[in-house]
């Protein structure tokens, strides 16, 4: 019995709905389910019996216990009797009491599902218990038989019928007692016995009792599963009249409240599984009989096979067959009787051009084998892919079937029911990664763990946004260009989604993403789609007009942004206190985000790139932000780590999620000082990057001098301001003045790490590398910023010739900031090159990630060899204005270091001289170039 499109037969979970007790519905089946269809049908006379006597195999019905509980609905008795004979059956005896008017419909309407083709439903008793009265409705209850095919529109037809019992005159305080039985089993299982009985309920239960009756000539295994409560309910076993009888019993069961985002492989409600299969080999043997070898195919199919065999590789042949089955055989499932699990012959499926998952799989396996490609069916539980590893071996543990094929020496999993797939097998969406499946093969003895080494790559979604700010005004419009890239299953979904939408619907879909952020946003032209089918990469580019892009707040300009490809990644319920684990994130999933903001020409800023990192048990988030000249670049990478977390940890996840806003705040603030005075006057002359930096330094000296002269600050407060002025003197190249401030800061605050850090910087400027190293070491011991101090000490050791310890410091600096901190990585690279060491594996990996990404990634890629110097400079020259001037300082220095390592000292010196000619002294690369040229007068050590 199918459940949703692409699922072909009922798995174990589907049985738990109605096998152990009646299903009391809050509404008639005809009214339930969005888009479902239901019609009243007649069933054969021998498929239903009213007021039937109890079956001879049944145990005496349990007495109905009283209850003092006042819950809206109380299950006073839930009794299930399972008869594992040649013609199996089960009986349900249930009593539910309603204590609240809002729950009357829960007990007044009863739905019993069965399949008339091979099952018979018998109603033995239906009584309303009202005080001491017993109002018998067995003979007069209104019964309608409804055939509800909720998935018919999607090509699903199971033949299941729901007997709907509608009781009159149900009152608060009444209890409804029902006894019914269903006899018969699907013949496709060959007489093997399999069933399941629920145990815990979402309502309090006074007495839960389960009977299992098995002839002594048969062996039925049982297992109680459950991950929340202890599963140590021990049955009593007796043997009489050729039957083994197990009785499971518990009283006063407390309800279990459902919780959102519970992991699929977590079992909150206990249940008992029964299976006559001894092991997985037995299940595989049974399944093998469903897919006998095919001896003939239609001539048209043979022609296709001949055509595909001309393709150059097994992969090309397999892709052609898969694509044909997916697109030429439409999905339609008629899962009645044995067809619930037994597929139709491939030749029939080929000719009629429709089938469900097992039909498509059987056909695809046949086509692949005809081309000499080893293939076999693989059973999967699509609703809970990892659950079969917990179950007893059973044919009911699965609801879907795919193909396992060995193509060009590699195991592949192919799903004939998917659409939108083509191209290389490595780039296709993963088929239930991490699932435990059963290979349909006579040699199978255990489950197969499905794995895909490309799963992270296929689960990566990239989003880049480019914003053009035309002028600094609250009424000014801006432009937004977005490019989003999907891979794997997401690309396949988008490919299908876009193809099914009209142009107007496509425009609405893309605009809806941004309307909450930018009110009145308008799509300037139709989205442009690029579909790289071969690599399964789907890209959409959209261009918008954004009204009133900026907000003026406290004298600063604020621009909002948000990485929409990181939206919806986390599942965080409103109530953090839980009993069950939390399916915290989509795993695996990687979101890469980049935002470029092009400011108007009257903006000129200089902020060094800032890298920040969150690395916890739930996710990894790395961000880099830079602002140079009139260009801002923000990059972020989010990678989920934990698919589920223990019930005690949602508060910790919430805490970590709040930290995301600290490093990815969703708004960028342009300070008033970063915009030239005079606003947007077209006649105003712009300052150069050097002039802006000099002006900034001069203002800092003036401001700190004024504060120090006031005499208000003492101790560490004064030392902090002295260090600020020392930094400004450092940027101006004024060693004497800066050293005087740094020395005073150390004297008045000998326990302040910051003081030693700024004195170390001045020692570096003076060429006293050993003294600088000592100051940085002292700063580390006194709590100075770890990442910056290791980075500074590494440079001191580098120029002192202590390359191995310098490399160690750069590694520590990178790790303290984040493993993706790029500037310590650059210095680690040049130190490694100078010492003759190979770059570490971590550094190589970092160097090859996005080699043409935001600066300074191209410089790092060049040092590793992923880019040539010409390619690196080409990336730099894409910039303009102040940003170009500032970036060239760094680019020339790192290229010079590469040339030094290659023995090209003349070319290196020319590049270092160009750095000095820029006059941009507040860059580390300026001082380093000075040192490399031998222009620093070394202080006495």
Characteristics of this structure?
Immunoglobulin-like, 5 domains, disordered C terminus, alpha+beta, 9-stranded mixed beta sheet, 941 residues, Jelly Rolls, C8orf32 fold, 25 helices
Q: Kindly report the CATH topology of the largest domain.
A: Immunoglobulin-like
User: Into which percent range does the helicity of residues fall?
Assistant: 25-40%
Question: Average pLDDT, to the nearest integer?
Answer: 89
Give the CA-based shape. elongated
Low-pLDDT segments, ≥5 res: 1-7, 12-36, 150-154, 678-687, 936-941
Number of strands: 38
- Would you tell me the structural class of the helices and strands? alpha+beta
Our Rg estimate from Cα atoms comes to 36 Å
| Structure annotation, total helices | 25
Biggest sheet record: 9 strands, mixed
Number of domains: 5
- Can you tell me the CATH class of the largest domain? Mainly Beta
Molecular structure report:
The structure is a single chain. The protein has 941 residues and is an alpha+beta fold. The chain folds into five domains: 246 residues, Sandwich (Immunoglobulin-like), CATH 2.60.40.3140; 154 residues, C8orf32 fold (Roll); 218 residues, Jelly Rolls, CATH 2.60.120.1130; 97 residues, Tetratricopeptide repeat domain (Serine Threonine Protein Phosphatase 5, Tetratricopeptide repeat); 92 residues. Helix content is 32%, strand content 25%. It contains 25 helices and 38 strands. The strands form eight sheets. Strands 3, 4, 5, 7, 8, 12, 14, 16 and 17 form a nine-stranded mixed sheet that branches. Strands 27, 28, 29, 30, 31, 34, 35, 36 and 37 form a nine-stranded mixed sheet that branches. α22 packs antiparallel against α23 and α24 crosses α25.
């Amino acid at each position: 019995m199918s459940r949703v499109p692409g699922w072909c037969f009922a798995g174990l979970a589907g049985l738990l709905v109605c096998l152990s007790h009646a299903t009391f519905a809050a509404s008639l089946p005809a009214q339930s389910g969005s888009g479902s269809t239901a019609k009243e049908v007649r069933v054969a006379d021998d498929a239903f019996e009213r007021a039937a006597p109890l079956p001879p195999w049944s145990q005496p019905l349990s007495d109905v216990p009283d209850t003092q509980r006042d819950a809206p609905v109380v299950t006073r008795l839930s009794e299930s009797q399972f008869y594992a004979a040649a013609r199996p059956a089960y009986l349900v005896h249930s009593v539910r009491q309603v204590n609240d008017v809002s729950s009357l419909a829960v007990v007044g309407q009863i739905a019993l599902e069965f399949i008339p083709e091979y099952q018979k439903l018998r109603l033995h008793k239906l009584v309303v218990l009202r005080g001491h009265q017993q109002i018998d409705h067995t003979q007069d209850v209104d019964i309608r038989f409804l055939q509800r095919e909720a998935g018919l529109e999607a090509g699903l037809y199971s033949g299941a019928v729901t007997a709907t019992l509608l009781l009159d005159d149900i009152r608060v305080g009444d209890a409804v007692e029902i006894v019914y039985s269903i006899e018969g089993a699907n013949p496709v299982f060959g007489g093997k016995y399999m069933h399941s009985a629920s145990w815990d309920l979402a309502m309090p239960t006074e007495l839960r009792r389960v009977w299992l009756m098995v002839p002594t000539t048969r062996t039925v295994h049982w297992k109680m599963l459950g991950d929340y409560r202890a599963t140590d309910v021990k049955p009593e076993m007796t043997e009489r009249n050729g039957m083994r009888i197990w009785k499971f019993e518990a009283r006063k069961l407390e309800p279990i409240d459902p919780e959102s985002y519970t992991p699929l492989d977590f079992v909150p409600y206990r249940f008992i599984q029964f299976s006559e299969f001894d092991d997985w080999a037995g299940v595989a043997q049974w399944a093998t009989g469903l897919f006998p070898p095919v001896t003939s195919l239609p001539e048209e199919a043979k022609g296709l096979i001949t055509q595909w065999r001309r393709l150059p590789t097994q992969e090309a042949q397999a892709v052609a067959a898969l694509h044909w089955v997916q697109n030429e055989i439409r999905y339609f499932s008629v899962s009645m009787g044995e067809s619930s699990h037994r597929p139709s012959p491939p030749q029939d499926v080929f000719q009629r051009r429709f089938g469900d998952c097992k039909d498509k799989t059987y056909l695809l396996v046949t086509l692949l084998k005809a081309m000499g490609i080893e293939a076999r069916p693989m059973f999967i539980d699509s609703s809970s892919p990892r659950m079969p590893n917990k179950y007893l071996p059973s044919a009911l543990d699965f609801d879907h079937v795919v193909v396992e094929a060995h193509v060009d020496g590699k195991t592949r999993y192919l799903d004939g029911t998917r659409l939108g797939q083509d191209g290389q097998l490595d780039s296709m969406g993963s088929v239930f990664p991490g699932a435990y499946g059963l290979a349909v093969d006579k040699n199978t003895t255990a489950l197969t763990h499905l794995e895909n080494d490309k799963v992270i790559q296929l689960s990566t979604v990239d989003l880049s946004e480019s914003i053009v700010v035309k002028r600094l005004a609250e009424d000014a419009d801006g432009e937004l260009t977005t490019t989003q890239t999907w891979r794997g299953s997401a690309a396949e979904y988008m490919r299908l989604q876009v193809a099914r939408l009209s142009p107007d619907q496509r425009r609405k879909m893309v605009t809806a993403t941004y309307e909450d952020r930018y009110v009145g946003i308008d799509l300037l032209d139709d989205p442009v789609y690029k579909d790289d089918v071969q690599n399964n990469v789907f890209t959409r580019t959209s261009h918008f007009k954004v009204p009133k892009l900026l907000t003026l707040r406290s004298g600063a300009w604020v621009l909002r942004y948000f990485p929409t490809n990181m939206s919806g990644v986390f599942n965080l319920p409103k109530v953090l206190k839980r009993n069950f684990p939390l399916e915290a994130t989509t795993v695996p999933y990687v979101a890469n985000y980049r935002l470029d903001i092009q400011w108007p020409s009257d903006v000129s800023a200089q902020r060094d790139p800032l890298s920040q990192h969150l690395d916890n048990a739930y996710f990894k988030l790395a961000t880099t932000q830079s602002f140079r000249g009139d260009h801002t670049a923000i990059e972020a990478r989010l990678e989920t780590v934990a698919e589920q977390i223990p019930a005690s940890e949602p508060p910790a996840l919430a805490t970590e999620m709040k930290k995301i806003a600290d490093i990815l705040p969703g708004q960028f603030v342009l300070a008033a000082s970063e915009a030239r005075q005079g606003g947007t006057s077209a006649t105003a002359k712009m300052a150069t990057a050097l002039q802006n930096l000099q002006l900034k330094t001069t203002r800092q000296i003036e401001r700190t001098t004024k504060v120090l002269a006031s005499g208000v600050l003492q101790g560490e407060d004064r030392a902090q301001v002295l260090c600020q002025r020392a930094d400004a003197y450092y940027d101006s190249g004024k060693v004497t003045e800066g050293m005087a401030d740094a020395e005073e800061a150390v004297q008045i605050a000998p326990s302040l790490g910051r003081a030693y850090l700024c004195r170390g910087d001045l020692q570096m400027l003076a060429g006293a590398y050993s003294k600088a190293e000592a100051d940085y070491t002292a700063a580390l011991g006194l709590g100075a910023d770890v990442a910056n101090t290791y980075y500074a000490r590494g440079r001191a050791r580098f120029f002192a010739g202590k390359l191995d310890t310098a490399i160690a410091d750069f590694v520590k600096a990178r790790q303290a900031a984040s493993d993706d901190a790029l500037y310590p990585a650059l210095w680690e690279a040049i130190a490694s090159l100078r010492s003759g060491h190979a770059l570490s594996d971590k550094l190589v990996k970092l160097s090859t990630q996005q080699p043409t990404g935001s600066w300074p990634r191209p410089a790092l890629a060049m040092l590793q060899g992923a880019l040539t110097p010409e390619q690196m400079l080409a990336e730099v020259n894409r910039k303009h204005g102040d940003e170009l001037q500032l970036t060239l300082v760094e680019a020339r220095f790192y290229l010079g270091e590469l040339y030094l390592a290659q023995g090209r000292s003349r070319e290196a010196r020319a590049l270092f001289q160009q750095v000095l000619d820029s006059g941009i002294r507040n860059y580390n690369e300026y001082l380093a170039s000075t040192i490399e040229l031998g222009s620093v007068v070394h202080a006495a050590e």
